[in-house]
Structure formats: structure tokens, C-alpha cells
């Protein structure tokens, strides 16, 4: 299966963000991808006071990507968006996956929220405006079991173990808006660790560049194979990169180095 990771720089202009996302999906389809993955908060990355009204999973955002999937004949993982939440103060940070007929096949709400204070560098309290999800999700994408997660989830290996073991996932998807400050040292290491320890392909699409004041995202979207090899990595620009997921190779690695089977519980 050929996958494309789409790296974008979403800002405070929702219509422009969606236009750029659509453009990336068209590039992915033209490059022969079967699945295209967009980053976290592909709808809007800007100040809270100008944020668009949150929507349900039957709103305009979902319709936009359902149409794109159908028109391009592509599996689309629509990164994440601001889904209306459990109360007036909070949204969910939600991923939707569409099949090539435009059907919604999965919804995942980010479980681990980014509440971090790193002196003079990062100050972020995601839980002030976002409610956490409480369900793990494995979707059947083009016949391949695919575990869903979002950005900060990447730091919690027990989630991915569950996706790979109980959920029998062979691909792990990570849409992200990983910070520049942490991304430099942590992004690639964590993605490769999740791939190696769970013997899965990891498909990670990141936001790139400056967003609202004080927030710069690391980018370097990538696809990692179950051996931990980086198959494709985006440069520091908006654009797509593609890679081929070879599931026979995954089976061979799991047979020859059966670390999942050798777990002692
Ligand atoms: N949007 C996020 O969850 C940010 C995660 C991040 O940057 C990290 O270091 O973790």
C-alpha cells in the first residue's frame, strides 16, 4: 500500500487551511497513494478567540473531506479537527477517516492532552479547552488494521502496545502538531521506537512552521517501517512525501524477530 503524509502549515484561516489540505490530497492521489494522512488541527491553528465554531462529525469539515475522498478515490485520514465537545468550554481533538466512497469509517478523539510548562520555551494547557477521548480505535484502512493516535499520544507507549496487541494493528498513524522545541530531540526517536517495539509501520504527518504567536511546529513528517528505518521524511516545507508499506516485510520481521510473541506478562 502506498501512503502519503501531507505536511501543512495551518493558521487562523479555516478556508485557506482546507484549500491547502485539498491541494495536498490531490498531490497524494496524483502520486499514486492509496491513503493520505493530514496533520493534527488541519482545520485551524490560531488564537482561541478567532477559532471557528466547533462542529459535529456530520458538519462541514467532515463533508469537505468525505467529498475529497470520493472525488479523488482515496482513503483520507483527515488529521484532526475541533469537534464540538461535552460542554461549552471544551472541544474534542478528533480524527476522522474516510474510505474512497466518502464513507466515514473511524473517529478517534485524542486521549492524552498536552499540558506542559517548559520554562521560557513551551507553555501549553490543552485540557483547558479540550476534553480527552477515552476509547482506543483501530480502523480497517484498505484492508489493513490501522491504529489511530494524535500527537502527544506518541509519548505513551502503552497506548500503541494496546493498538498493536489487542487491536492487531499493523500500521500506526500519528497526525501531529509537534512543537519545534521538543520535536528536535524527541519526534524521530519516539516514532522509530513505536515502530520497532510494536513491529508496525508508523505514518506520521506533522504541521510545519509558525502558527499563533509562540507556537512553531517541527514538521519532518515521516513514514517508518517496522524495523525502525525511516522510509520517507518531509523537508521543512509544505508538501507531501510518499512511501510503500510492504506488509510481507512486516510479517517477515515479526516471524524472524518475534518480540511481540516473546512478551512475558
Ligand atoms: N499538539 C501536541 O500534542 C504537542 C505535542 C508535543 O509537541 C510534544 O512535545 O509532545
What does this structure look like?
The chain has helices spanning 14-30, 60-72, 157-165, 180-198, 247-256, and strands at residues 2-7, 35-37, 75-77, 81-87, 90-98, 104-109, 115-118, 122-125, 138-141, 144-148, 171-176, 201-206, 208-210, 216-218, 222-224, 230-233, 239-244. It is an alpha+beta fold. Strands 1, 2, 3, 4, 5, 6 and 17 form a seven-stranded mixed β-sheet that branches. The longest helix has 19 residues, at 180-198. The structure holds the ligand NC(=O)CCC(=O)C(=O)O. Ligand LYUYDEPV binds next to helix 4.
Name given to the CATH homologous superfamily: Carbon-nitrogen hydrolase
* Name of the CATH architecture: 4-Layer Sandwich
Q: Rough shape?
A: globular
Ions, cofactors and other ligands present here are: the ligand NC(=O)CCC(=O)C(=O)O
Number of strands: 17
Write the H/E string, N to C: EHEHEEEEEEEEHEHEEEEEEH
CATH topology: Nitrilase/N-carbamoyl-D-aminoacid amidohydrolase
Distance between the termini: 33 Å
Helix % is 25-40%
Q: How many discrete structural domains?
A: 1
Amino acid at each position: 500500500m502506498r501512503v502519503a503524509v501531507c505536511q501543512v502549515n495551518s493558521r487562523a484561516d479555516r478556508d485557506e487551511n482546507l484549500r491547502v489540505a485539498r491541494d495536498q490530497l490531490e498531490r497524494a492521489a496524483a502520486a499514486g497513494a492509496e491513503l493520505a494522512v493530514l496533520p493534527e488541527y488541519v482545520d485551524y491553528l490560531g488564537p482561541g478567540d478567532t477559532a471557528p465554531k466547533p462542529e459535529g462529525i456530520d458538519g462541514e469539515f467532515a463533508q469537505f473531506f468525505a467529498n475529497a475522498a470520493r472525488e479523488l478515490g482515496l482513503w483520507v485520514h483527515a488529521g484532526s479537527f475541533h469537534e464540538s465537545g461535552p460542554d461549552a468550554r471544551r472541544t474534542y481533538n478528533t480524527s476522522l477517516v474516510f474510505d474512497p466512497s466518502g464513507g466515514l469509517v473511524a473517529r478517534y478523539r485524542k486521549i492524552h492532552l498536552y499540558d506542559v510548562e517548559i520554562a521560557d520555551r513551551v507553555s501549553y494547557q490543552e485540557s483547558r479547552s479540550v476534553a480527552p477521548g477515552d476509547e482506543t480505535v483501530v480502523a480497517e484502512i484498505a484492508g489493513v488494521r490501522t491504529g489511530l493516535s494524535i500527537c502527544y499520544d506518541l509519548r505513551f507507549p502503552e497506548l500503541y502496545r494496546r493498538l498493536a496487541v489487542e487491536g492487531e494493528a499493523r500500521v500506526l498513524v500519528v497526525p501531529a502538531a509537534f512543537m519545534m522545541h521538543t520535536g528536535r530531540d524527541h519526534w524521530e526517536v519516539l516514532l522509530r521506537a513505536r515502530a520497532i517495539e510494536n513491529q508496525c509501520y508508523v505514518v506520521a504527518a506533522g504541521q510545519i512552521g509558525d502558527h499563533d504567536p509562540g507556537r512553531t511546529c517541527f514538521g519532518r513528517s515521516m513514514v517508518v517501517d517496522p524495523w525502525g528505518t525511516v522510509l520517507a521524511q518531509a523537508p521543512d516545507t509544505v508538501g507531501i512525501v510518499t512511501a510503500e508499506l510492504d506488509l510481507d516485510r512486516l510479517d517477515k520481521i515479526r516471524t524472524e524477530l518475534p518480540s511481540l510473541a516473546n512478551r512475558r506478562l
